[in-house]
């Protein structure tokens, strides 16, 4: 019977064959211990000389790291293993012998590991991070599908900037200028006017020359947009969504969180509702914490976000930022027009902003004023104005950065480990 490591629990006491790679090995006298991986998980194969014969035992001891092979043996329970099972090996068949695999069990420098990212992905911790990323994606689809959202795919090539920024990758689109998308939001607003509740999931690009541990040049965004929803309605969706994703990872990625030595007690507290603090109160809190230079009207940096998050044991919404430091499309607070109906969701433990969201301007005249104030081209944004011209409604939306969310949930320090092949300021290889 051929199976995978993730399925061996079905075959306790039975003999099965697994196609695998040798991650590591050690031997002790007449017993060899093979650390096997097949992409679905890791399992230990125990090779006993008296059971397998001298020739096959010698072959097992001589296997090199990352050699591919078929391993046949009996599955037994093993309470000492976090996985809970191991294989009593009866036979080995080498498929391809690997030689001089560059990433050994010893410590390696970060740049070396990044240069060998295509091979580093095979390691146990990197495997765990990618499995957690996959679970977040799976849970995202489940949450939005179960709540009546339609997935709509916005274009990656656009003729305009979503937020009026200059940090865009430019290309030629035949005889026109085009840009790699930094957000699908404007297109999702159009989709929401057609389908009510929508979400997108795709790559976005920021030509921001930043080297911090929180930034990537290419990253993935989940961007829901909802017609007939105000700012408060959107905050409830956001906290329920994040809570659902975190609890799904806790339930379905126990082995992976263990492999990363993640403190799950912090994640267990992540259940809606989340605390809210206004921008005004956040300024006061920062001054109390010794940030004497921060003034009203300034945006928050990583140290500010971390200091605010330390006051709470759950993610926290910072609401109602000054209009001057936020995007042109955000709706002003009707009771205080110098601030907008928006919120950033700040993750605990110093991981910073993972969601930015707002209620969008739905009034045509006000949006035209914003166009003029921000110097936006009427031709390029004509279609976006028309969303306010033909049956405009209150609507809200938000964007969650996948990689920052993976870093937080997995407890990974640097965002570069949360995407299979990171694109950073000085890295386009491999």
Please state the CA-atom Rg, rounded to the nearest Å. Answer: 26 Å
Spatial arrangement of strands, main beta sheet: 7-11-12-19-18-17-14-13
Mean pLDDT, to the nearest integer, reads 96
Question: In angstroms, what separates the terminal alpha carbons?
Answer: 37 Å
Number of helices: 14
Organism: Thalassobacillus hwangdonensis
InterPro entries: Aa-tRNA-synt_II, aa-tRNA-synth_II, aa-tRNA-synth_II/BPL/LPL, Asn-tRNA-ligase, Asp/Asn-tRNA-synth_IIb, NA-bd_OB-fold, NA-bd_OB_tRNA
Enzyme class: ligase
Domain Aminoacyl-transfer RNA synthetases class-II family profile: 130-430
Description:
The chain has 430 residues and is α+β, with helices and mostly antiparallel strands. The chain has 2 domains: 2-96, Nucleic acid-binding proteins (OB fold (Dihydrolipoamide Acetyltransferase, E2P), Beta Barrel); 118-418, Bira Bifunctional Protein, Domain 2 (BirA Bifunctional Protein, domain 2), CATH 3.30.930. The chain has 14 helices and 19 strands. The protein has helices spanning 49-52, 54-61, 110-115, 117-120, 124-146, 185-195, 231-252, 254-259, 264-268, 279-288, 302-309, 364-374, 382-389, 402-410, and strands at 2-3, 15-28, 31-37, 42-48, 68-77, 85-96, 150-151, 157-158, 170-173, 176-180, 197-205, 218-227, 276-278, 316-319, 332-333, 336-340, 342-347, 352-359, 395-401. The strands form 4 sheets. Strands 7-11-12-19-18-17-14-13 form an 8-stranded mixed beta sheet. A 5-stranded mixed barrel has the order 2-3-4-6-5. Strands 8-10-9 form a 3-stranded antiparallel beta sheet, with no helix packed on it. Strand 9 and strand 10 form a beta hairpin. The chain is elongated and about 85 Å long. The mean pLDDT is 96.
